[in-house]
Amino acid sequence: MAGDHWDVAAEEKAVWDMSSLIPIYIYHTNDLHSNLQQWPAAVSYIKKNRQFHEKKDETALFFDIGDHADRVHPVTESTRGKANVELINQAGIHHATIGNNEGITLSKKELESLYLHADFKVLLANLFDEAGEPPPWSQPFDILETKEGIRIGLIGLTVPFYPFYKELGWNVRDPLEILPALLEKVKQQSDVVILLSHLGYPQDEKIARTYNDIDVILGAHTHHLLKTSVLLNNTLIAQCGKSGFYVGQIKLEFDQNDQKVVKKEGAAVDVSREHAHPSTSVLLHRLEQEAEEEMNTPVARIFEELPVSWTTSSPFADLLADGVRNWCDAEISMINSGLLLESLEPGIITRKDLHRLCPHPINPCLLDVKGAVLKETIAAAFTEKMIHLPVKGLGFRGKVLGRMAFSGIKVVWEKKDPESGIKDIIIHGEHLDPKRTYQLATADMFTFGPLFPGLSQSGPKKYFMPEMMRDVLAETLKYQCR
User: Fold this and answer.
1) CB-based contact 75:36 (threshold 8 Å)
2) How many Cβ atoms are within 10 Å of 475's Cβ, its own excluded?
């Protein structure tokens, strides 16, 4: 490997010792998150290298490691990920596994139909239906054989967000419990073992340290950009960031005499300046036009503007708080105004409007919370730090957390100013009782992250799946128009 990519000219001039060493090339993408404008450039690089290896009659494999689809993009939203599958087909990917965006932002029915027209195989060893059966659209592993007779074993695993999969009707299992027996089975049939892992880099490291029989781990989920692949306990770990700006490439050298891989190297290649692949661009343009038509479906009509503010109380945020409370049939609710990216103008409201101003894959959640924890959380929410906090991850696709809006809760300040401190909290006309348990509806992002530890440690919790905040908005606006 020269620099951070294959030097094609140098490769063509190289004289290989063909006595026993066989090269195997791997190209991989991960965590595109529907950054579809970048995908044609990535495909251009993939297809150029495919043609190069075909010309040399070399084995080259192409994989995607999940979270290709993200409903933040209107094309993915309108097709529930089927457009992403069409784009993966066109790129010529051989195998893929799923990420949490494919797994838990789609209903069970939508996921079951997602890969009906896939030209690639979906590898997924730790997802089952409620009866314990693996889904028919996936397989736990696959064994490929090269023209030289080298057997390549492939395993797919995804991150187990247990409560979310359960609410959707799936049974997701601990990948580290599944892997030992599966690996034993696969390695008996393989000369090379590759793990497609949407588990995150820390888990990939743990697996590499634990097992000696995995040659390559193609990683995802944590968006690590490993410009040079990491060799750990003789396992090569590769991951190429997020959004399709890099494509991973790996070269293995297999010794036919010793029947094992004797050299491994890999890198993440910057493809951001690649020319867009023409056929992929044409396909994407068609998908965008179809999505535009679908997303212009009317949802409701409003007659007055619904303004939102991230720093002060605002009608639109209050409306969402009321809607979440009603959706969850809760006693009270609290929702951050940063979920709403824009105010809503009067007139016909379409799916496109709601998706644009509330693009997050965030679900409503109902949980039991003690009054003392609720008071502590409300106080923390009104600090300048939290209002202006630029949240990254947890499904949030906005700018800042924003001011908290409530339904069923009234906050009384010492001097009518949040900075003066809380004087009282009134819940349905009564003073908050620190010892009492309240049923609170809120955003799921507050229940499993570090933003409000009191909420993440409270429970039990019920997640409303697969409905997202924009679905709550749609129903709330429809109700307002009746």
Assistant:
1) yes
2) 16
Angle between helix 278-295 and 82-91 (nearest 10): 170
Q: Quick one: CA torsion of 476, 400, 162, 141, rounded to 10 degrees?
A: 110
Please answer whether residues 41 and 276 qualify as being in contact, where contact means their C-beta atoms are separated by less than 8 angstroms: yes
Between the two ends of the chain, the Cα-to-Cα distance in Å is: 65
409 forms beta bridges with 427
- Diameter over CA atoms, the chain: 85
Domain ranges of the chain: 8-291, 297-480
CA distances from 428 to 333, 409, 418, 425 (A): 12, 7, 20, 10
Q: Within 13 Å of residue 169, how many CA atoms lie on the same side as its CB?
A: 9
The CA distance from 335 to 363, in Å, is 12
CA atoms within 13 A on the CB side of 42: 32
**Residue 447 backbone class (left: φ over 0; alpha: ψ -120 to 50; beta: rest):** alpha
CA distances from 383 to 48, 101, 404 (A): 53, 32, 10
d(CA 387, CA 171): 37
CA quadruple 313, 317, 322, 326: dihedral, nearest 10: -150
pLDDT of residue 413: 85
> Per the structure block, which two tokens stand in for 310?
């991230």
Beta carbons within 10 angstroms of residue 270's beta carbon: 17
In the block, residue with structure tokens 């993966």: 88
Q: How confident is the model at residue 7 (pLDDT cuts 50, 70, 90)?
A: low
Nearest to 463 by CA among 437, 443, 480: 443
Q: Classify burial at 139, counting beta carbons within 10 Å of its beta carbon; exposed 0-12, middle 13-18, buried 19 or more.
A: middle
CATH architecture assignment, domain 297-480: Alpha-Beta Complex (3.90)
pLDDT tens digits along 155-202? 999 999 999 999 999 999 999 999 999 999 999 999 999 999 999 999
Place of tokens 């195997």: 24
* Yes or no: domain 8-291 corresponds to CATH 3.60.21.10: yes
| Residue 403 amino acid letter | R
Residue 13's pLDDT is 42
- Beta strands per DSSP E along 46-177: 59-64, 95-96, 121-122, 127-129, 141-145, 151-158, 170-172
